[in-house]
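B., you asked whether I could sanity-check this one before it goes into the benchmark set. Here's the sequence:
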Amino acid sequence: MATELPNLSQGERMQRVLQMLETRDSVHVAELSEQFSVSEVTVRNDLSELARQGLVARVRGGVRSLNQGGQAELGFDFRLRLEVRAKQAIARAAAAMVGEGEAVALDASTTAYYTALELRRKRELVVVTNGMLVAASLADAPGINVLVTGGELRLSAMSLVGDLGADLLRNTRFKWGFLGARGISVDRGLMDLNPDEVRIKQEMADACERVVCIADGTKWHRSALLSFVPASGVHGIVTDQGAPADQIALWRERGVEVVVAEVGPQERLPPRPIDLRPRH
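And here's what the prediction gave me:
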């Protein structure tokens, strides 16, 4: 019998559905209604919203996954609204590591976006990123110089990938690299889905003195196709209280600093990112 999860918001329920579809072909309205302790009408509304965003396909009595093995990538704007409180807490803890006048690399993850918002308070920083929305969030920050890697635009992640970005990173050194991950494992290190994204993350990690994974507790229970930084190349992890204690202990035994950020009781949603996507 599934564990009941009452009092979840719509965004939290939708995230749970997507997590279930990572290991199953389909989920059904009746079981979700029981698990979430909400009406079937409410569940159908949640599933309709997921289908509207192109994240699932509706079938009789429920929804099915659009992919095989749960390896699809969700859009940036949707992911930005998942685990908001945890990501904001992680961002504050990550930004606190950075001193004035340092050079920082941020990938195109949503947690990096939140970290960029926290870095706006710093002065005399150099920030390089392959995230278009990450760069846009720092564009008018006084005292911060933003470098954007070149390359091909990936619309789903609003990121730039390819050899043009790698060329910049190979000739630059940064003190900090804050990188998000689809999955975390002491055996496989930091993992992600898209090969192009993985390559630019590898180049970014190689350009940094210290590589810090910024990932909320849900990422500790996931795996992904490709590793972009081995465990031996990770210097630190910033996460939240949802991370499993036994896995944290394993990383610390390897000498990796793990910071568990305290999630505040009330967090505000950030301003909606500038929409840089092409108009049709």
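One thing to flag: The longest strand covers residues 208-214. Otherwise nothing jumped out at me.
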